[in-house]
Amino acid sequence: MEDWVYRALEKWPNVPALFGWLGLDRRGRWTIRGELISRPQIIDTINPNYAADEHGRWFFQNGPQRGYVTLESAPLVLHSDGCGRLLTHTGLAVDTAEAAWLDENGALWLRTAHGPAVLEGEDLYWLLEHLRGPQTPVDEDLLAETLALPSGSRTMLSLRLGATTLPLGRLDFDAAPKVLGFVREPQPRDAEAGAAG
């Protein structure tokens, strides 16, 4: 978080949180009430002040007010930088991960130091270049067999990420929040019940 946020929290410690206003779409774009946020100044304010609470609910700390974020997919959306590295939608480099999975649609899920992250859509070419199997490159048949496995299965594939190779598991999209410890649709807890937006 930026210093101005901490100063605002000290000055106004009890500002109610907002729920249902902010969102993050599957492409890593911020939304407010379903409309894309396109102004770079706003995006540059949100990105460094985006974090998770102890319950796995992700939020933007806007000065003294916390705005919880509804997630279409994952808290962090990954993109390739075109040079073989992955970056979060907030601009953080992902050079390592603790665990990796493929979902039923072929998206890559990672448990990173920055939080739960997904790579999907146009950037899946990166995944194909970094997959390893009994035969490399991984062919379409093996990939199809892997995607057809039940959620929770181990696969014959692994992922090369930086200097490490991670075994790939299979994880359904709907199971990702529980396994990775995040909440897609944050709701107020009892003490916050009057703050819903």
TrEMBL record:
Pfam families: DUF2944. InterPro entries: DUF2944 (IPR021332). It comes from the Bacteria. This is DUF2946 family protein. It comes from Sinimarinibacterium thermocellulolyticum.
